[in-house]
Design brief:
The protein is mainly α. 71% of the residues lie in helices and 0% in strands. It has ten helices and no strands. α8 runs antiparallel to α9. The protein is elongated, with a radius of gyration of 20 Å.
Length: 195
């Protein structure tokens, strides 16, 4: 008798339900039996699809970054790098509020192992690239694009985290994000341009 083939719908259900359980009860509460019960499958399904719980946890994080990557990749690169930064920030926000439990697993739980630390770094590099393009175009004063992008990301992440914790209403969070990012961007602008 041959083994039952892996069902992609079950695989995704395991990933999403694991993210839900981690967000609701913390990573320590995620167990094989609890997950299988919540999905309505056998514990063997985790081994069939992932080989074990550690790989499932890695896949939760990877899936979160895959979805973020999809949102960011949908932002067209234009001749206006400043507008591109705004649009990347909006895409980051939409991804986070659309996939809140995956977002929590990506950023609040951290890597599963040392080999997982670079997962999703390419999503941040898109922001670094847009900041560098602003520097190159004379929109921003010369500086370290990586450090400048970190500031923009930190503001976006902070606002999203406050909304996901129900400490900011969605409209307040969006207004705060727009204002804070705008303040940072104005601080980056070339003094000659401001004059």
């Amino acid at each position: 008798m041959s083994p039952k083939p892996a069902d992609p719908k079950v695989r995704m259900a395991l990933v999403e339900t694991a993210a839900d359980l981690i967000a609701a009860e913390g990573p320590a509460s995620l167990s094989l039996r609890k997950l299988a019960h919540a999905v309505g499958t056998s514990t063997m399904a985790v081994y069939t699809h992932f080989g074990g719980m550690d790989e499932l946890r890695r896949e939760v994080r990877r899936e979160g970054f895959n979805r973020l990557r999809e949102h960011l990749s949908a932002v067209p690169r234009t001749d206006d790098p400043g507008a591109d930064i705004d649009n990347l920030g909006a895409a980051y926000y939409v991804n986070a509020v659309t996939n809140p439990n995956l977002y929590r697993a990506m950023f609040m739980e951290g890597p599963v192992g040392d080999d997982d630390t670079d997962v999703g770094f390419d999503t941040f590099e898109q922001l670094v690239d847009a900041v560098q393009r602003c520097i190159d175009a004379g929109r921003f004063a010369p500086g370290d694009a990586y450090a400048m992008a970190q500031q923009l990301w930190a503001v976006s992440h902070g606002v999203v985290a406050l909304q996901l914790a129900h400490l900011l209403e969605p409209q307040v969070a969006q207004d705060c994000l727009r204002a804070a990012a705008g303040n940072i961007i104005r601080a980056f602008e070339d003094a000659r341009q401001r004059a």
